[in-house]
Design a protein that fits this description.
With 478 residues, the protein is α/β, with parallel strands linked by helices. It folds into 2 domains: 2-246 and 453-475, Aldehyde Dehydrogenase, Chain A, domain 1, CATH 3.40.605.10; 250-442, 3-Layer(aba) Sandwich (Aldehyde Dehydrogenase, Chain A, domain 2). It has helices spanning 35-54, 57-73, 75-86, 90-113, 149-162, 177-188, 203-212, 225-236, 260-272, 289-305, 324-339, 375-378, 394-402, 417-426; strands at 2-3, 6-7, 15-19, 26-31, 119-122, 128-136, 139-143, 166-170, 196-198, 216-222, 241-245, 250-254, 282-288, 343-346, 365-368, 385-391, 406-407, 411-413, 433-434, 450-451, 454-455, 468-476. A 7-stranded mixed beta sheet has the order 14-15-16-13-12-18-19, with helices on both faces. α4 runs parallel beside α5 and α9 packs across α10. The mean pLDDT is 97. Bound molecules: nicotinamide-adenine-dinucleotide (NAD). Nicotinamide-adenine-dinucleotide binds at residues 143-148, 152, 170, 172, 203-204, 207-208, 211, 222-224, 227, 230-231, 245-248, 279, 380, 382, 408, 449, 453-454.
């Protein structure tokens, strides 16, 4: 762990074991924090806050850029750690490590650009004028899941640090290695001690301390909807700011006039990327009956062609699932659909033999004829399982797409821009793509969900509103 700029152990001597999801091998052990170590990290961040907040924005820019430059020199090392602990193909880990660095650079540049600004407000009292100034919040607790540990870390620490907050980050206990390494490098790059800390341990201990400790003023949380609800309820007792980036069940709608080839490719990539374990993965497809046969055939063919292998294999396009439990949930959701009459068109099984038997591999799976009451339409499917439904009209597709508690992403495929705009207007989601799915995270564009997918934004200049608060100032007057 990293507390107050230094490597830190747990006083109890407890450790967390990190296993490779592709082989089951022990990759490493890290200290497991308890309440005591979490408090030390919070105290260090609290102590460091005033001086960090008082730096000029371009001074924070310089420090963050130095840290980012150092991290950039270690991308291969960080990517290798990420693949070993998370399971994703090395190529994807490299992109993720690079996205971390780019995100830090993006918000460092925003700090230096003067974009973090308030406003002047004319007042109706002679001689008086009003200002609205922006202030950082203080200590931020960043709670991160295991599926994209580095981008989701950057989404929080980059804007938080750029505007003058200090941070205690808590990665998932199964993916702490790449996070700890990056935090070390950012510290080596010149962050003052205590500005960025990382503690590892159970959500019920470390996460809870972050949420309940009154020195922490904001929780940036990404994770499951159920956990997010609990975080919000508990943060309320201390009136903490919260951003909640939660689960999703993104629909993709394919219209009768869509470019079938393009839509099928995007849907297959959008579902099977990161072994289906992405909040913004395509999780439900509604395709117009006029093109349904073609889309189903093409997506199925792509699923069958995908090269599944350990993430360390350079030819891997899809790695293992991250946990045994995650795979069991996907199997149960698949069984539920099949028991109700769904047909399996591709996959449906664990991969067998060497090198698969030791890891949590599951075939890219496509199902159709899935009855509306099946679990896959209601629940988040967090793995490589794709249900495709035929619909008779665009209205039916939109109605089914919105028939979900989630509202994270969504996409529509059509050659008619007017139809695309009208569809997007009616989709209940925080993000929509036209003729595309989530492949690139745009730093420039705010991202966040609606309904049970959470609230608050990451990315864009808009995220700055969620890591600062406004203060009104009156000068002069009678
Ligand atoms: P999770 O909710 O189990 O855990 C997320 C983090 O919260 C972990 O660090 C965990 O230790 C911590 N935590 C767990 N219980 C806690 C508690 N009681 N108090 C405080 N912290 C606690 O989620 P997960 O299974 O690791 O991640 C997968 C989920 O994350 C999926 O639902 C996925 O859709 C969602 N997700 C959302 C986004 C987004 O931006 N909306 C991005 C990625 C993942």
């Amino acid at each position: 762990m990293v507390i107050d700029g230094k490597p830190a152990a747990a006083r109890s001597g407890a450790t967390v074991e990190i296993h490779d999801p592709a082989t089951g091998e022990l990759v490493d052990r890290v200290p497991q924090a308890g309440v005591e170590e979490t408090r030390q990290a919070i105290d260090a961040a609290h102590k460091a806050f005033r001086a960090w907040a008082d730096l000029l924005p371009h001074q924070r820019f310089q420090v963050l850029m130095k840290g980012a430059a150092l991290a950039r020199q270690h991308l291969d090392e960080v990517a290798s750690l990420l693949t070993r602990e998370q399971g994703k193909p090395l190529r994807d880990s490299k992109i993720e490590a690079q996205r971390f660095v780019e995100n830090i650079e993006f918000y460092a540049a925003i700090a230096a650009s003067g974009a973090i600004r308030g406003k002047q407000v004319p007042l109706s009292v002679p001689g008086a004028f009003g200002l609205v100034v922006r202030r950082p919040l203080g200590v931020v607790g960043a709670i991160i899941p295991w599926n994209f540990p580095l981008t989701l870390l950057a989404n929080k620490i980059a804007p938080a640090l750029a505007v003058g907050n200090t941070v205690v980050a808590k990665p998932a206990s199964s993916t702490p290695l790449s996070t700890i390494r990056l935090v070390e490098l950012m510290n080596e790059g010149g962050l003052p001690p205590g500005v960025l800390n990382v503690v590892v341990g159970p959500g019920a201990v470390v996460g809870q301390e972050l949420i309940k400790n009154s020195k922490v003023r904001k929780i940036g949380f990404t994770g499951e909807t159920q956990t997010g609800k609990q975080v919000m309820a508990e943060a309320a007792s201390d009136l903490k700011h919260v951003t909640l980036e939660l689960g999703g069940s993104d629909p993709a709608i394919v219209c009768d006039d869509a470019d079938v080839e393009m839509a099928s490719k995007a849907i297959a990539i959008g579902r099977f990327f990161n072994c289906g374990q992405a909040c913004l993965a395509v999780k439900r497809v509604f395709v117009h009956e006029a093109v349904a046969d073609q889309v189903i055939e093409k997506v199925t063919a792509r699923a069958k062609r995908l090269k599944v292998a350990p993430g360390t294999d350079p030819s891997a396009q899809m790695g293992p699932m991250h946990t045994a439990g995650g795979r069991e949930t996907i199997e149960a959701q698949l069984k539920d659909a099949v028991d109700r009459g769904a047909r399996v068109l591709a996959g449906g099984n664990r991969l067998r033999g060497e090198p698969f038997d030791r890891g949590f591999f599951f075939e890219p799976t496509v199902i159709t004829d899935v009855p509306p009451d099946a679990r896959v339409w209601r629940e988040e499917t967090f793995g490589p399982l794709l249900p495709i439904a035929r619909v008779k009209s665009l209205d039916e597709a939109i109605e089914r797409a919105n028939d979900s508690e989630f509202g994270l992403g969504s996409s529509v495929f059509t050659r008619d821009i007017k139809k695309a705009q009208q569809t997007i207007d009616r989709l209940d989601a925080g993000y929509s793509w036209i003729n595309q799915v989530n492949l690139v995270a745009y730093d420039e564009l705010p991202f966040g969900g609606t309904k049970h997918s959470g609230f608050g934004k990451e990315h864009g200049v808009e995220v700055l509103d969620f890591y600062t608060e406004e203060k009104s100032v009156v000068m002069g007057g009678v």
